[in-house]
Amino acid sequence: MSDATASRSLYWLRDNCPCAECRDPRNGQKLFQITDLPAELGIAAQTEQDGRLEVLWSDGHRSRYPLHWFAKPEQADAGDHRSEAGKRLWRAADFAAGIPEARWSDYLADPAERAAVLRAVQRLGFAVLREVPAVERQVLDVAASFGYVRQTNYGELFDVRVEPNPNNLAFTSVAISPHTDNPYRDPVPTLQLLHCLENAATGGDSGLVDGFQAAALLRTEAPADFEVLTRTLVPFVFRDRGTELRADRPLIETDPLGRIREVRFNNRSIGRLRLPAAELDAFYAAYRKFAAITLRPELQLEFRLDSGDCLIFDNVRLLHARTAFEPGGTSQTPEGAGGGRRHLQGCYADLDGLAATLAVLDRRAAALDRLQELFEGEGAAEYLGEAVTQAEHMLQAAALAQREGAPDHLVAAALLHDVGHFFDQHSQHAVTGRQLMEGQDNRHSHTGADRLARWFGPEVTEPVRLHVAAKRYLCAVEPAYRAGLSAASEYTLGVQGGPMSPEQAAAFAELPGAADAVAVRRWDDAAKVADADTPGFDHFRPLLAKLLG
Asked: How far is CA 545 from CA 285, 351, 371, 538, in A?
C-alpha cells in the first residue's frame, strides 16, 4: 500500500473517485449511493505514474487520483467559511488606514475587484461600495450582482427614513444600539445591504461591531457565561398588525466543533424567557456581560454613509448601529424644520449566494492563471518548426483577430486554438506538438476544445475544435489557399488527413461553427511572423474573463 492510500480511509478514497462513472462530468455530482460500495472494500493493485495514483479496487473498478490530493498534511478546514475559522476577527483600530471599499464602476468592470469586495464581506463581515447611483431600487441591483434578494414582511426592499407611524424604531430618528436584524426569523437573512440615497442630517452616522470578536472575548473572559449564551434558547419575537414572527435561538450559536457560527443580538425583539429563576439569573448575568462587551469603544467602528454609498454586511456576525439625528421631515413631509433628510434603502440577501459568486470568480481566476502558466511555460517551446514559439503564434493570431474587429469570442478562440498541443488526451499532462511532427495526429483541436469546455461556451470551443478541419476544408475549396501554407503546415496537413473530399467539404460547411473556424484558421496561418510586436497574455485576460462560464 502506498503512502497516499495508507493515509486515507479506503471508503473516503473510493467515495471521492473522480471518474466519469462515479461523477457526472458536467456538475461533479456523485452517480452512486454509499450503500452501493461493497461491504468488504479492498485494493487489488495500485501504481503511481505521471502525477497520478491509479487504484484497481477489489470489485474491479479503476480509479485515478491526482497525487497533489495527498501532498499536503491533513488540517482543519474552514468549511463553508461561516464559522469563526473562516473569518478575521477585528477591532475598530484595525481599520485606521480605511475600511474595505471599492467604486461601483470598478466592482462591475473588474472581476478581481468584485472578488476582493465579496471576500471582504466573507472574511471581515462588510464592505462599502462607493458611487453607486443614488436612485431608488438600485440596492436590488447591488444584491443581484452577487446573489438573490430575500423578501420579507418589509417587502423586497425597505426605506430607512423617518416615518409618521413607524412599526420599527429603525424608521425613527432615535439612536439605535448595536444589533442584528430579523433575529425572529428562521432562517434569518444572513446579509443586509443599506444604500444611501440622501444624508443631509446632522448625526445619523453608521456603526458596526464584530459580534464574533465580542463573543470570542466573552469566551476568554467569562467562559461559563459564554456557555450559558450558547445553550439558552431565546424567544425572538416580532409582531405588528399583519405579522407574527418568532424564532427560538441562542444569542451565540456554535457549530459541532464549538466554533462561533452565528450571533443574534437584538434587545428590542427578545420575548419572555420561561425558565427557572436560577437559570434566568444566569442568563441575564451572561447577557448583560455580553452586551457590555459589544459597547466597548474599541470594538465600535463608526463611519458615515453619504449619497451613493452602499454598505454590505454579514447580519449573523456584525452588529450594526446608528447615532441619533435631527430629522428634516418625514417621507410624507419632504421639508421639515431643522436637520436634513436621511434616506437609505435596504434589502436582505444571503451569504450562500455571495459565497457561490465568490467561488465562481475564484475558479475563473484560477482558470486564467492556468492558461497564463501554459503560455509562459510550455508556450515558450518551438511551434512545429515555425519561426515563432507556440505562445507567440497564438498571441499573434489573437492580435490579428482583434485588429480586424472580430467579436470577443473569436479573439478568444484565436488565442486558444492550439492549447491542445499542451495536453495529452489521456493523461492531460503537458506535452508539445512533437507527435504531430513525427507523423502522429495528436488531435490537438479536439483535446484543446474539450479542455476549454470546462471554462468556455461553444462559441469559443467549437472554432477551436474545427480549426484543423477548416484547413482541410480550405485546401479543398480554395486551391490558392494551399499554395500559401508554410512547409510545416503542409506537412501536418497530410498527417491530419489531407484536403477534404467534396462530400466532406459540403458537410463541413453546414456545421454551426464552420464560418468561425475558417476565420480562426486564416488568423492561424498568418500568425507565424518572427519578432512581431504582439501584446502579451495579460492584454487578453480581461476579454477572457468576460467569456468564462
From this structure: 54, 24, 12, 11
Q: Locate 7 and state its grid cell.
A: 493515509
Q: Are strands 126-130 and 101-103 parallel, antiparallel or unpaired?
A: parallel
β-partners of residue 55 are: 46, 63
Give residue 321's pLDDT: 95
Q: Which residues pair with residue 318 across a beta bridge?
A: 210
Which residues are paired to 322 by β-bridges? 176, 206
Which of 141-155, 198-212, 289-303, 442-456 shows the lowest per-residue confidence on average (mean pLDDT)? 442-456
List the beta bridge partners of residue 302: 207
What whole-number distance in Å separates Cα of residue 402 and Cα of residue 399? Answer: 5
- What is each CA distance from 547 to 97, 451, 491, in whole angstroms? 36, 15, 34
> What integer is the mean pLDDT of 477-506?
86
CB–CB of 125/87 below 8 Å? Answer: yes
Q: What's the grid cell of residue 39?
A: 461491504
Query: Which CATH number is correct for 84-356, 3.40.640.10, 3.40.190.10, 3.40.50.300, 3.60.130.10?
Result: 3.60.130.10
pLDDT at residue 388, as a whole number = 87
Phi-psi region of 336 (alpha: psi -120 to 50; beta: other; left: phi over 0): beta
Cα(305)–Cα(323) distance, rounded to whole angstroms? Answer: 12
pLDDT in tens, 8-18: 789 999 999 99
| Single-letter amino acid, residue 174 | V
C-alpha cell at 249: 435561538
- Say how many C-beta atoms besides its own lie within 10 A of residue 188's C-beta: 20
21-25, 184-188, 217-221: which range is least confident on average? 21-25
Average pLDDT, stretch 461-474?
Answer: 93
Length, in residues, of the chain: 549
- Domain 3-70, CATH among 3.40.630.30, 1.10.357.140, 3.30.2020.30, 3.10.20.600: 3.30.2020.30
